[in-house]
Amino acid sequence: MRRCPSLLRRLLASGRSTYRNVPDLGDVVTMKKLLRQLGAEVEGDGRTTVDCTHITNFEAPYELVKTMRASALVLGPLVGRHGQARGVAARRLCHRGAAHRSAFARAWPPWAAAHRFSSTAWSTPGQRLHGATIVFDMVTVTGTENLMMAAALAKGLQRPWENAACEPEVEEMARVLNKMGARVRGAGTSLITIEGWMNCTRWITAIIPDRVEAGTLMVAAAVTRGNVLSRTAHPSTWTR
User: Which residues are identified as catalytic?
Assistant: First the structure.
């Protein structure tokens, strides 16, 4: 699941972007299908190009993503760029979905007053999101990532978000959003500040190594008294 948000950032901008080091995993295959369902052009495997210039559909079909929690992360990019998201984007939030909804409502009061939320739809007809202060009710990685992607296209400065997730994946998202033109500061701490940029640009980037998979192999080696060399799991590779 941690690999999927990288592909979703493509929804924020037009043009063709390239990802290297994309793993051949079931969730990644499903996410590519979801992006195509929304109207994106997705090509390649380990080196994947994604073009979201022509997004024509704003609904993620439940049958496609009902087994993948990461599908909730289409919410931030779709609402941020297009002002709407329907279907699974609203329903497939993780067990901390209340934190997602609460953060969106607190972040943009004008939008919260006018938006429509149900089990199937978020919509902000004719409105762009505006910056505000966010205090997360609980630490949530997907909630922080969702809000970061939406805020990348919001008007105004996002004052420091409190209780944000600090995981390396959040830091990596900040690095890529900065490549796109947003101004993200504080990622990797519990206080994040974002200044949105209305025209995100395309980019080339590599998917960071999966720290949990690396840790699992390291523990397996320790338990079995084996000898395992993990070549790309050093923290320095997270800054690529």
Answer: 94
Neighbouring CB atoms inside 10 A of 186's CB total: 16
Q: If you write DSSP's letter for every residue of 28-95 in order, what string do you get?
A: HHHHHHHHHHHT-EEE-SSSEEEE-TT----EE-HHHHTT-GGGGGGHHHHHHHHSEEEEHHHH---T
pLDDT in tens, the chain (240 residues): 555 656 666 678 777 888 888 888 888 888 898 899 999 999 988 889 999 888 888 887 877 777 777 777 888 888 778 877 776 544 555 555 566 666 666 665 555 545 555 555 666 555 666 666 788 888 888 888 888 888 888 776 667 888 999 988 899 889 888 888 888 999 999 999 988 776 677 778 888 888 888 888 889 999 999 888 877 776 654 444
| Cα–Cα distance, 93 to 239 (Å, whole number) | 28
> Are 81 and 153 in contact, with CB atoms under 8 Å apart?
yes
3-state class of 15 per DSSP? coil
Q: Report the first-to-last Cα separation within the chain, whole angstroms.
A: 20
Query: Could you tell me if 75 and 59 are in contact, meaning their C-beta atoms sit under 8 angstroms apart?
Result: no
Helical (H) or strand (E) element with 116: strand 116-117
Packing angle between helix 75-82 and helix 141-151, nearest 10 degrees?
20
